[in-house]
């Protein structure tokens, strides 16, 4: 098992890519702490436990600094360490530049950027004390190339990449790596709602001619959270079927 005896916190771990990460990490031997506001996180944790894995669910917003700090302190106290932080929680509020409201801008920045900052700041002292850590944060290929109607989302994902590179420099001497993953179109609930004609056009735009499944992205997270990536830090791993070539 590639994550045997590791303790992993996964934000946004209740559905889509986050659920795939949670279930894969548990299968690979990690104790998984799912942090999400969606109630189905309880179902995901129960499913992991029912199949012999170890998981907990905590209904907390990544934007609630005090609650996140309290949870991370509790996890570290219960397990003696926190090995892995997966910053996966995120939202979209799409609108073209001229139509985007300040509230739509602020909402996405609050969760996708500030939430990642809050969680990483909270986990850093425990990883430093342990001399070990893997931080992997959700970027997007939109953060590399932009996308129509996603000024706010693209800005947060580019920011996640920049923060990860900064943490590489600041935390590397403590045995902590920091990386980002930039998925392309992935078969999540949001993508399933795209009209069929638009979906077909999206598939044709991808060199591999298909969108990713959540597990395709989860395997990238597994690599960057495992011992196999010991000397990999400060990268943005793009998993988008060749779109961002």
Summarize the structure.
The protein has 245 residues and is an alpha/beta fold.
What does this protein look like?
The chain has 245 residues and is of the alpha/beta class. It has one domain (7-237): NAD(P)-binding Rossmann-like Domain (Rossmann fold, 3-Layer(aba) Sandwich). It is 48% helix and 15% strand. The chain has nine helices and seven strands. A seven-stranded parallel β-sheet has the order 3-2-1-4-5-6-7, with helices on both faces. α2 (40-50) links the parallel β2 (31-35) and β3 (54-58). 45% of the residues are buried.
Structural class: alpha/beta
| pLDDT < 50 stretches | none
Sheet having the most strands: 7 strands, parallel
What is the total number of structural domains?
Answer: 1
* Strand segment count: 7
Give the spatial strand order of the biggest sheet. 3-2-1-4-5-6-7
CATH superfamily: NAD(P)-binding Rossmann-like Domain
Radius of gyration: 17 Å
Could you state the order of secondary-structure elements as H and E? EHEHEHEHEHHEHHHE
Strand content: 15-25%
- Tell me the CATH topology: Rossmann fold
InterPro entries: KR_dom, NAD(P)-bd_dom_sf, SDR, SDR_fam
Family: Belongs to the short-chain dehydrogenases/reductases (SDR) family.
Protein name: 3-oxoacyl-ACP reductase FabG
Pfam families: adh_short_C2
């Amino acid at each position: 098992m590639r994550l045997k005896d590791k303790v992993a916190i996964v934000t946004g771990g209740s559905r889509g890519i986050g659920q795939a990460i949670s279930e894969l990490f548990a299968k690979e031997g990690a104790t998984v702490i799912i942090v999400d506001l969606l109630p189905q996180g309880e179902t995901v944790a129960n499913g992991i436990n029912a199949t012999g894995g170890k998981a907990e669910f905590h209904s907390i917003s990544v934007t609630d600094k005090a609650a996140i700090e309290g949870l991370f302190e509790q996890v570290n106290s219960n397990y003696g360490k926190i090995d892995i932080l997966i910053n996966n929680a995120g939202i979209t509020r799409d609108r073209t530049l001229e139509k985007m409201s300040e509230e739509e801008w602020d909402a996405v920045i609050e969760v996708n950027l500030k939430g990642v900052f809050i969680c990483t700041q909270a986990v850093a002292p425990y990883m430093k004390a342990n001399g070990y850590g893997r931080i992997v944060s959700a970027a997007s290929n939109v953060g590399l190339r932009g996308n129509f109607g996603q000024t706010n989302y693209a800005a947060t994902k580019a920011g996640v990449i920049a923060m990860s590179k900064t943490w590489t420099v600041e935390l590397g001497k403590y045995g902590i790596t920091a990386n980002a993953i930039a998925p392309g179109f992935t078969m999540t609930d949001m993508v399933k709602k795209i009209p069929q004609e638009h979906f077909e056009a999206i598939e044709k735009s991808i060199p591999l001619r298909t969108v990713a499944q959540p597990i395709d992205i989860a395997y990238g997270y597994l690599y960057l959270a495992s011992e196999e990536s010991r000397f990999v830090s400060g990268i943005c791993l793009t998993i988008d079927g060749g779109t961002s070539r």
